[in-house]
Specification:
CATH class of the largest domain: Alpha Beta
CATH superfamily of the largest domain: Aconitase, domain 3
CATH topology of the largest domain: Aconitase, domain 3
Bound molecules: 3-isopropylmalic acid, iron/sulfur cluster
Number of strands: 19
Radius of gyration: 22 Å
Number of helices: 16
Length: 474
């Protein structure tokens, strides 16, 4: 059992009791909700005549179904309009703050929590969404939950949870130029497998994380769930505190100093005991690209696609063969030979300002390749505003990208932004499952925002480090 870890400290600080099932009843400090997994939970509350126990610890937004072109009401999609109306009604009736378009703070749930300073070190956080692990970047224990658990948290502010083991993933050394947090996330999943994290919380540590920005840490924690982990976190440090200072919901004045002292106390001790420790060398990581139908089916940009015939019979070989069938790619093929149809920059993995800056940097002075449909969907209204203040929208538009409104968009295509037929996308999102981007035969290549930008301007998967400099661009 892990001791002296952040996991351990945050868990114990929030444990209410041990339930007869052996599970821990855990108090949840922050509950974020969105339109997809909350309507039935509110209905169940209504059926039982219950209230939201802590409306001041509950915050709502809408992200999955929002159209990114016209947002005039009623929405063109009547299903989406109904979901919007449901969350409007539920938040009003139950007294839950709702970050809708009018507030200027709407966005993907995992982007707005940190951006508003709602996400704070040492917290337990829950949201009816698997990528809640994102908030672990702040030294929180953040869990994605299902709709019946959303009901439980609404009604009691508690969850019944099984304890986790802790695996420390330490990456030492410095990342090579052009290698980003997204590449780190894909590398970890490639090495440990999409199921490798089952039963674990991942603690990300080592020089790479020490020097990573908060947005980068969010990208890596976001994808913990794609590696099977229940949660993922980075210990809070000065980078964390600097990010949170002055945010809307961050503590102010004397409360700020007291909060920082408390937050520091949640970090893992230097002599903490882990259930497992895995160590990687930063130099071994290169820009990564997925070629298959799970986020673990990836290669470094310089490597050829793997050969299933070289794998032992069984699970991995079968899923590799299945992936080749769906992706219409060939073992041994170079990733840089794969042409793309669509370039999507956005999502809770890579829809933050640093992601847009990194992509714009590549796009500046270049043009989207002929036949490629490229678009940028900022992760939140605030990210969008910031990007426009920096003129990034113009960089994208001049290159031929579309500049859209904030939401989940083509990350999972619950809105009109969908692949057609067997189109292939270069996508900065987190899942490449069959049908994920709206078309059953659609194909998704996951990569960093800079790599998506490089693919958009060349029309095929490209090592962003190989692009020739653009004349006249500083
Ligand atoms: C719609 C929602 C329940 C889902 C999730 O839980 O992750 C979505 O956000 C996703 O990324 O697949
Ligand atoms: S951006 Fe994608 S992964 Fe994130 S919450 Fe939305 S659909 Fe899920």
């Amino acid at each position: 059992m892990a001791t002296g870890t952040l996991y351990n400290k945050v868990w114990n600080a929030h444990a209410v009791t041990t339930l007869p099932t052996g599970q821990t009843q855990l108090f949840i400090g922050l509950h974020m909700i969105h339109e997809v997994t909350s309507p039935q939970a509110f209905d169940m509350l209504r059926e039982r005549g219950l209230k939201v126990a802590y409306p001041q610890r509950t915050f709502a937004t809408m992200d999955h179904i929002v159209p990114t072109l016209s947002q005039s009401r009623p929405f063109g999609d009547s299903q989406a309009e109904l979901m919007m109306q449901a969350i409007e009604k539920n938040t009003k009736e139950f007294g839950v703050p709702f970050f809708n378009f009018e507030t200027g703070k709407q966005g993907v749930v995992h982007i707005i929590g940190p951006e508003l300073g709602l996400t704070q070190p040492g917290m337990t956080i829950a949201c009816g969404d698997s990528h809640t692990s994102t908030h672990g970047a702040f030294g929180t224990l953040a869990f994605g939950i299902g709709t019946s658990q959303v009901r439980d948290v609404l009604a009691t502010q508690c969850l019944a949870m099984d304890p986790l083991k802790v695996r420390r993933i330490e990456i030492n050394g410095q990342l090579r130029p052009g290698v980003t947090p997204k590449d780190v996330a894909l590398f970890i999943i490639n090495r440990l497998g999409v199921k490798g994290g089952i039963g674990f919380a991942y603690e990300y540590a080592g020089e790479v994380f020490d020097s990573m920005t908060m947005e980068g840490r969010m990208t890596v924690c976001n994808m913990s769930i794609e590696g099977g982990a229940r949660a993922g976190y980075v210990n809070p440090d000065q980078t964390t505190f600097d990010y949170l200072k002055g945010r809307e919901y961050s503590p102010k004045g004397a409360e700020w100093d007291a909060a920082v002292e408390t937050w520091k106390g949640f970090a893992s001790d230097s002599d903490a005991q882990y259930d497992e420790v895995v160590v990687f060398d930063a130099q071994d990581i290169e820009p990564m690209v997925t070629w298959g139908i799970t986020p673990g089916q990836s290669v470094g940009i310089s490597q050829a696609l793997p050969d299933p015939a070289a794998m032992p019979q069984g699970g991995e070989r079968t899923s590799t063969e299945l992936a080749y069938q769906h992706m219409k790619l060939k073992p041994g093929q170079k990733t840089t030979d794969i042409a793309i149809d669509v370039a999507f920059i956005g999502s809770c993995t890579n829809g933050r300002i640093e992601d847009l800056r990194a992509a714009a940097e590549v796009v500046k002075g270049r043009k989207v390749a002929e036949g490629v449909h490229a678009f940028v969907v900022p992760g939140s209204m605030q990210v969008r505003k910031q990007a426009m203040e920096e003129g990034l929208h113009r960089v994208f538009q001049e290159a031929g990208f579309e500049w859209r409104a904030a939401g989940c968009s083509m990350c999972l295509a619950m809105n009109p932004d969908q692949l057609k037929g067997d189109q292939i996308s270069a996508s900065s999102s987190n899942r490449n499952f069959i049908g994920r981007q709206g078309s059953p035969s659609g194909r998704t290549l996951l990569m960093s925002p800079a790599m998506v930008a490089a693919a958009a301007v060349t029309g095929k998967v490209t090592d962003v480090r190989d692009l020739d400099p653009v004349q006249g661009v500083a």
